[in-house]
Amino acid sequence: MKNITLVTIADACGGRLCGTDGMAQERLREEASCVVIDSRKIEKGGIFIATKGEKVDGHEFIPSVASKGALGVICERAPKDCRIPYVLVEDSFKALKDLAEFYRMQLTLPVVGITGSVGKTSTKEFIASVLSQKFRVLKTQGNFNNEVGLPLTVLSIRKEHQAAVLEMGISDFGEMHRLSKIARPDICVMTNIGQCHLENLGSREGILKAKSEIFDFMNPDGHVLVNGDDDLLAKIGKKGNHPPIHFGMNPQNEIYASNVEGKGLLGSSAVIHGFLKVLPVEIPLPGEHMVWNALAAAGVGFLMGLTPKEIQRGIGKVESVGGRSHVIPLGDGILIDDCYNANPVSMRAAIDLLATAKERKVAVLGDMFELGECEAKLHGEVGAYAADAGIDVLICVGKLSRCMYEQGKRHMAARPKKGQVYYFTTRDEMLEKLPELLKKQDAVLVKASHGMQFEKVVEKILDGVNI
Asked: Fewer CB under 10 Å: which end of the chain, C or N?
C-alpha cells in the first residue's frame, strides 16, 4: 500500500507509535500489505485496527494478528505482551477514516462516487461493469458504503486498479460530508431523492441537502451526473467547474433513453442518446428503473472515454447483486430476491417488476424502517399500490405493515378481480404458514427493510417451500 507505513500511519491518525524499541528503520518504513478491522482477514505485513463493537472488542484479537505476521496494530489502549508495534489513538474508528483519507490523497486513479435514495447498488454494478470493459476496476463490495465500509473500501485500492466505483450511503446530516472527505470523487452520480431516512432528515429537501454533501470534496474539475427526471435533482446548479449532466427518459436530458421495450423479468432493451452518440443496448436486469441505471453508467462511460461498443458490452454484461432484484428461476416459478432493504420508492419499483410476471403474482412485504412520523401513511400507500398494480396475493409482515395490510385489503376489495391479502405480526409466524400460501408456478417477490431479516424467507423458499 503506497506510503502506508508505521511512521506515516501514526502521523495520519494523530497517534503515538509504540513498541518499536530495537526495530530497524527499514522495518518502520515498510509499506503495509493491507488494513483490516476483521482479525480473520489479516495478511502477513498487514495493519489491524482494533475497534470496539457492541458484542466484540477487537483488542482481544491483537495476539492473534501478531501471530499471523501483522506489521502492526492501531488501538485505543496499550495491549498486554504485544510483540509487534502499535499506534495508540483515542478513537479507532476515527483513525480508520483518517488513514483512508491520507491514503486516498496518495492515489491518482479516477473515483466515481454514487449516492441517492434508491438504486445506488444497482447503479454501482452498471457503472463498474461498463468501466471494466476498459479499466481494472475496484468497486464497493456488499454493504460497505458507510463510515466504516467506505474507508475500508478505499484502503483496499491497489496499484493495479485503474478506477474505483464507490457507493456512498447515509442516514443523517454530516455523514456524507465525512464520506466525501475520504472518497474525494472525480465523478458524482445521484440516482434520485426518495422517501428514506425521513426520521433523521425530515423531508425530501432534507435528504437532498444531506446527500449534496457529496460535492463538498469532489474534484473541482470533476463532473456531476444527476437523474434529470427527479424534480429535485433537476434543479441542482453548477458544481465545480462544470454544469451538471442530466440523465433520464425525458429527451430534454443530456443523456436519455428512447424505444424502451420491457421484456418482463428478462430485462429490457432501449436506445441511449448522449454525447452525440446513439447506442442500442440490451439491459439484462428486469424493471424499468434499471434503464436509469444504464443511463448513468453510459454517462460515466462517455466521460471516461469508453467507446460506444465498450459501453454497450458493459451494460449487457451487468449482473444483479444478491438481495437486490435478483431474479431466480425456480422450476415452474420465479423468486425475486429483493430482501436487502426497502423504502417506499424501492417498494413501488419492486412491485412494478413483479407486475410484469406472467405467473400468479405474490408479494411478501415487510416493515420499512426509519420513515419517521409518516410511517403509517407510507406503509398504507405501499399496500394500496400493490393491490392497484394487480398483485394476486399480498402478504404483509411486521407491526408497521398492519397499515399496509389494511389499505391493501381495501383496494383489493375494490378490484374487479379480487386478490388475497394476509397479515402476520412476525416473520417466523408467516414462515409457518408460507407453504399453504404459495403454489409451484408462482412469481414471488420478497422485500423488507434489512432489519426484518427477510433473507430467511428467501432461504426458506429456496429450500423448497411448495414451489
From this structure: N
Look at the pTM and tell me if it is higher than 0.70: yes
Task: Report yes or no: 207 and 201 within 8 Å, Cβ to Cβ.
Answer: yes
As given in the structure block, the three cell numbers for residue 132 are 471494466
336 within 8 A of 325, measured Cβ to Cβ: yes
The strands making up 47-49's β-sheet, listed across from edge to edge, are: 16-18, 86-88, 72-75, 47-49, 35-36
Contacts of 41 (CB under 8 A, 6+ apart): 34
pLDDT in tens, 192-240: 997 766 777 778 899 999 999 999 999 999 999 999 999 999 999 999 8
Strands 163-167, 137-139: pairing kind: parallel
Q: Could you tell me which of 191, 192, 210, 193 has the C-alpha nearest to residue 201?
A: 210
Do 428 and 454 touch, CB atoms closer than 8 A? no
Q: What is the pLDDT of residue 467?
A: 43
State the DSSP code for 290.
H
Please answer whether residues 361 and 353 qualify as being in contact, where contact means their C-beta atoms are separated by less than 8 angstroms: no
- Phi and psi at residue 339, in whole multiples of 5°? -90, 0
Three cell numbers, residue 141: 463490495
pLDDT recorded at residue 153: 96
Count of residues making up the chain: 467
d(CA 379, CA 203) in angstroms, rounded, equals: 16
Q: What is the pLDDT of residues 3-18, one digit of tens each?
A: 999 999 999 999 999 9
**CA separation (Å) from 160 to 1, 108, 136, 387?**
11, 12, 7, 50
